[in-house]
Amino acid sequence: MISRPSPFMVILTLGILLVISALFVCTLGATGFTLGKTGSLSLFVIEQIRLPRISLAIITGAALGISGAVMQGLFRNPLADPGLIGVSSGAALGTTVYIVLGSSLGLDTLSRHYPFLHNVMLRWMVPLSGMIGGFCTTGLLYSFARRQEGLSTTLIILTGIAIGSFTAAITGILTFRADDTALRDITFWSLGSLAGANWSGFVILLPFFLTALILIFPLRDILNAFLLGEKDAILLGHPVERFKKMAILGVALATGPVVSFVGVIGFIGVVVPHLVRLVTGPDHRIVLPASALTGALLLLWADTAARLIAPPAEIPVGIITAALGAPAFLWLLTRTQTGSALS
Amino acid sequence: MFRGFALNRRHFLKLAPIPVLAALSPLAHAENAQIIKDCRGRPVTLRPWQRIAVIGGTLTETLYALGASERIIGVDSTATWPKSALKEKPSFGYMRALAPEGILSLNPDLILAIDDAGPIATMDQLIASRIPVFFIEKTPSPEAVDRRTRLLAKLVQKTNEGEQLCREIDTSWNRLSQWRGAHTGTKKILFILHVANGRPVVAGRHTAAEQIIHLAGGKLVTEEIEGYKTLNSEAITTLQPDIILTMTENEQPTRQLIAHDPAFRLTPAGQKNLVIAMEGERLLGFGPRTADAALELAQILSRA
């Protein structure tokens, strides 16, 4: 038997680390940090640029981390990530539709007559269309994978593959139709970046994130029962069908909105739950909160690297999470001899 | 809610000193009073700015041409001319994927931005930082070149240099219209922006390339396309361009494409291997050298 640190200690350590990191990272940046000097610009940078960005990094990382843990538990598959239920590919499709077709749909011309509407559209149509795309795709997948006897996880995976290829095809057709500027915008969106973080975006995302947490946390006991297999979970008296619905809804609510805002950020959803289970073991009562905290920590530091590596320019954070996440994942695989510790 | 707070405070700070200044020193007030509006109608008080962050290659090129390069503290990655600009000035990345803190870290006293700089969230935050942000129109037309040059000259107090530069530019435009008056015949032109995955990305209508080709007396064969788009092989054979125009930066891949793609061999341009390459910022930037580029293009077209 391997001795595990107590759940309380794990959560406490991660929580303290996150708070210290957030405070520390707040002092880092291209403009530097001068304590005590209330120069209006440095105050503005901290209050209006760094703090919203740090907050966004924390809820994005937490949403991706906890969603990854739920997905891996639900599918009993170590490779499952939030993308499996189509929410990310749907968000990609939604944003691409708006970036490519937005001007030709006449929305821009229409709203130009109403300056307020135009301002709102310019700022919020990309994330909004991403959210709509993400939720619709997940809904479509759900209706395909539902059978009279219930929701089959195998069917979800297979339907997810089909719908994923289909949305990718439509996105492809659109990018073929896109002009050069739209293509560049799509590329930068797909690389993922937190550079556009502001308080209004954070305030819009927070309710989705909190609702998702409220949906996901009560699932911890069923997720544990699910480790034994779906039949055993039913025999143990758990409402398995309701659980599957809640899990999918929770993951869609957690990831759809953040992906629409910040673009594609890879590997947090897959790697974080593995890292957590290495320390805590498979008990979801610890894995869920620890994955949220670890995801937040990792994305916070990855985004800090994105901000600091090439000042005054920035690197898209999706590149950093993929560049660090892929080797970390390989290292995880070599560490486990049988691979059993992963599942 | 945080933004609302910042906005109120900003207005307060902006309003508070003015009556005081006005009462104490009418002269200082008169000096500061010159307010100009940018292309979005946002007022900015004219000041002798010394630390300008410039977003948009054409703006950087014009400031260099006006002899105001020492006032530039940072540029974006589209500042391709003069070549020294990106070497001697820090770059804050691509003009449509900017992050606010990088720009603010250079401590600019003015942020000059071409109208389509972005993303919008970043521009919003730059505006909220209380450092003046001045947007400049990006219209690709000879008149707009004059307007931009005069405006930039005014912003850096180089009005004489601005007038001189406009005169030089106008000389080129005049020589262009003389040349076009003396030479008739319209060549059909295909403009290749770059080659992506072995396919040409070409210019359609409402692009700077379309404008420059019209000015030089050519006809763009891809006028049905909007913006810059990828073109398939079969379309190339039906378009029958006489000449292929591209940018020096992408000349090699373009020549390779034309040499290897059979569709081009069925066009007059492909058969005679007529490829013209001109420096991108000069040709498409609608900055100080564009008039000269249009003249050169017109001359090449009538000789080809």
What's the arrangement of secondary structure elements?
The complex is a heterodimer of chains A (343) and B (304).
Chain A: H1 7-26, H2 40-75, H3 87-101, H4 107-112, H5 115-145, E1 146-147, E2 150-151, H6 153-177, H7 180-191, H8 199-216, H9 220-226, H10 230-235, H11 240-262, H12 268-280, H13 284-308, H14 317-335
Antiparallel strand pairs in A: 1-2
Helix pairs in contact in A: 1-13, 2-8, 2-11, 2-12, 2-13, 3-5, 3-6, 3-7, 3-11, 5-6, 5-11, 8-11, 12-13, 12-14
Chain B: H1 2-15, H2 17-24, H3 26-32, E1 35-37, E2 43-45, E3 52-55, H4 57-65, E4 72-75, H5 83-88, H6 100-105, E5 110-114, H7 120-128, E6 133-136, H8 142-155, H9 159-182, E7 187-196, E8 199-203, H10 208-215, E9 218-220, E10 228-230, H11 233-239, E11 243-247, H12 251-260, H13 262-265, H14 268-271, E12 275-278, H15 280-284, H16 290-303
Parallel strand pairs in B: 3-4, 3-5, 5-6, 7-9, 7-11, 11-12
Antiparallel strand pairs in B: 1-2, 7-8, 8-10
Helix pairs in contact in B: 2-3, 8-9, 9-16
Q: What characteristic shape of chain B results from the CA principal axes?
A: globular
Mean pLDDT metric of chain B: 87
CATH superfamily membership of chain A = ABC transporter involved in vitamin B12 uptake, BtuC
The second-level CATH architecture of the largest domain in chain B is 3-Layer(aba) Sandwich
Distance between the termini of chain B: 63 Å
- Proportion of residues in β-strands of chain B: 15-25%
What is the share of helical residues of chain A? over 70%
Care to count the β-strands of chain B? 12
Kindly provide the name of the CATH class of chain A.
Mainly Alpha
Strand content of chain A: under 5%
Protein chains sharing the most extensive interface: A-B, 41 and 42 residues
- How far apart the termini of chain A lie comes to 17 Å
Structural domain count of chain A? 1
Q: Level of helix content of chain B?
A: 40-55%
Q: In terms of structural class, how would the helical and strand content of chain B be classed?
A: alpha/beta
| Contiguous uncertain segments of 5+ residues of chain B | 1-30
The number of E-state strands of chain A comes to: 2
Largest sheet of chain A: 2 strands, antiparallel
CATH topology descriptor of the largest domain in chain B: Rossmann fold
Instruction: Output the helix-strand order of chain A.
Output: HHHHHEEHHHHHHHHH
